Structure formats: C-alpha cells, structure tokens
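A reminder from the course coordinator: this example appears on the midterm review sheet, so study it carefully.

Given structure:
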C-alpha cells in the first residue's frame, strides 16, 4: 500500500511537472513569435529609414553640386575682376606719368610766360 501511495504521489508530481513543461513551452513559443514579429517590423522600419536617408543624401548631393557650380562662377568672376583691376592700375600709372610730364611742360610754359612778361615790362 505504501508503495502504491508513493507511486501515485510520484505520478501526480510527474503529471504536474509535465503540465508545467507544456505551459512553459507554449509561453516560450508565444514569446518567440512576438520577438520574430518585432524583428520583422524593425526590418521594415530600417528599410523605410534607409530609403529616407537615400532621398536626403540625394538632395544634399544636389545642393553640394549647386554650391560647386556657384563657387566655380565666383572664382571665374574673381579672375575677371582681378584682370580688369590690373588693367586699370596700369592705365592709372600711365595717366599719372603723362600728367607728370604735362605738369612739367606747364611749369616750363609758365616760366617762359613770366620771363617774356618781365622782358616786356622793362
């Protein structure tokens, strides 16, 4: 009798452990399914994020290209401006030299006029 009672108690315990095992396996499957669902959702979000980043990258590359073109135009304009400025400086030097010669001619003429006036007044 005691052997039967011990065996029945062990059978009951084994049954409880098996039920608990089944319950834990079911719970594990549910958790794995939820995890897999979240990973698939995350993959979808990563793809959306990637596409968004590609669009932003393309827009920024276009902006960079526009800035490069603008920079090229400004450099070209600067070169032209420097050439014009150099030409004007050379012309200014020539005109200043010419003005110096004309001032000397004027001074000589004024001196001659003064001398002739003085000779007329005597």
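Designed residues:
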């Amino acid at each position: 009798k005691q052997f039967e009672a011990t065996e029945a108690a062990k059978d009951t315990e084994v049954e409880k452990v098996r039920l608990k095992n089944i319950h834990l396996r079911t719970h594990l499957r549910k958790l794995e399914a939820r995890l897999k669902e979240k990973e698939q959702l995350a993959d979808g979000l990563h793809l959306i994020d990637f596409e968004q980043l590609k669009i932003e990258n393309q827009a920024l590359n276009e902006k960079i290209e526009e800035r490069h073109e603008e920079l090229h135009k400004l450099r070209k304009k600067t070169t032209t401006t420097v050439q014009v400025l150099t030409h004007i400086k050379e012309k200014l030097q020539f005109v200043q030299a010419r003005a110096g010669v004309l001032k000397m001619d004027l001074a000589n003429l004024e001196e001659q006029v003064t001398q002739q006036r003085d000779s007329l007044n005597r």
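Residues 2-121 form the longest helix (120 residues). The chain has a mean pLDDT of 91.
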